[in-house]
Amino acid sequence: MHELSMADAMVKTVLDVAEKNDATEIIEVTIEVGKLTMLNPEQLKFLIDVLVENTLLEGAEVNIVELPVELKCNLCEYTGLADMDDSDHYLAIVKCPECGERNVEITAGRECNVKNIKIEKEEGDEDA
Amino acid sequence: MHKIAEVEIQHDIMVANRKLADRNQKILDDAGVFSVDVLGAIGSGKTSLIEILIQKMDHKIGVIAGDVISKFDAGRFEKYNIPVVGLNTGKECHLDAHLVEHAFGDMPLESIDLLFIENVGNLICPVDFDLGSHIRMVVISVSEGDDTVEKHPLIFKEADLVVINKIDIAEAVGADQDKMVSDVKELNPDIKVIKSSLKTGQGLDEIINIIEGFINK
């Protein structure tokens, strides 16, 4: 259950930052997940919902944003988005969309990033 | 009175793992240890291959045996009187750089020069987690079906060496071993792919030569 450890690490990160910023409530969390991570956003969301019970995160809106796959072609120097069919990871990591070369490097799409949070705090508190 | 504040976090768990993995590799380099991450499906022959390499390779070898319950594989390696650290992942399906760093604490790195880190049998989850090893060797077998590579592309894209094991029973299980090789080559054109049978010994010398080649690079 790969998503569980990731969800757990994310929840801990968010709670830690919220505490350091004297949050009284967490309203919203945005998480970015690359399309080539071996993570299923639906499962991730479910596990976060379970893990946040009885924490400051309970009730917060959790946004999971999927990030696209980007490639660098080692032949034609193309850099940019992979031509990716949502149902098929295979072509995306094999071929350059410009020249069809298979010798490509994946430059984006492996992220698992806790991007930001929106919190409520007492007026007058300084940011930590 | 309350106010709403947005707090930028930008904490990427993958990047955090990669940093730990880089640190692990530095620890290995400083100790003069070359490390091989051994990944693959359950029952593909990872443990058996490492056992053979322990006996055949002329190195001071240590093994970190990662598994949900590691004592079974660790026990197999301990028979050879080499340093072995069992790494229980409990509920987790993969090793990560943090767990491996902990295992280094129990591994006498100064008295070995080659370290095998056997990952949990799984072709999906370990892909996301660099451990800090110098190369990744993926072991699969024909009995998993000849569409295994197509179904799990990323692990082969990221590998340095792929072993397709149990080819002596390919016909019996109706698997096209050459298709498996060409599927790997399509994903990773320059990679070394070895067809092997640990039972007959086919391919073993080649595997050893390739690992030695990486060590001497």
Short description:
Helices cover 27% and strands 33% of the residues of chain A. By secondary structure, chain A is an alpha+beta fold.
Keywords for this entry:
heterodimer, A: 128 residues, alpha+beta, three-stranded antiparallel β-sheet, B: 217 residues, alpha/beta
Structure notes:
The complex is a heterodimer of chains A (128) and B (217). With 128 residues, chain A is α+β, with helices and mostly antiparallel strands. Helix content of chain A is 27%, strand content 33%. Chain A is built from three helices and six strands, in the order αβαβββαββ. Chain A has helices spanning 2-20, 41-51, 89-92, and strands at residues 23-34, 61-67, 70-73, 79-81, 104-108, 112-122. Chain A has a three-stranded mixed β-sheet, with helices on one face. In chain A, β1 (23-34), α2 (41-51) and β2 form a beta-alpha-beta unit. The longest helix of chain A has 19 residues, at 2-20. Chain A is elongated, with a radius of gyration of 18 Å. The two termini of chain A are 34 Å apart. The model of chain A has no long low-confidence stretch (mean pLDDT 86). Chain B has 217 residues and is α/β, with parallel strands linked by helices. Chain B has helices at residues 13-31, 46-56, 71-78, 97-104, 148-151, 153-157, 170-173, 177-187, 204-215; strands spanning 2-12, 34-40, 61-67, 84-88, 114-118, 135-141, 161-165, 192-195. A seven-stranded parallel β-sheet of chain B has the order 4-3-5-2-6-7-8, sandwiched between helices. In chain B, β3 (61-67), α3 and β4 (84-88) form a beta-alpha-beta unit. In chain B, α1 runs parallel beside α4. The mean pLDDT of chain B is 93. Classes of the chains: A alpha+beta (128), B alpha/beta (217). The A-B interface holds A 1-2, 4-6, 9-10, 13-14, 17-18, 21, 24, 27, 34, 36-39, 89-90, 93-94, 102-103, 106, 110-124, 127 and B 1-15, 91-94, 96, 124-125, 127-128, 150, 153-154, 157, 186-187, 189-190.
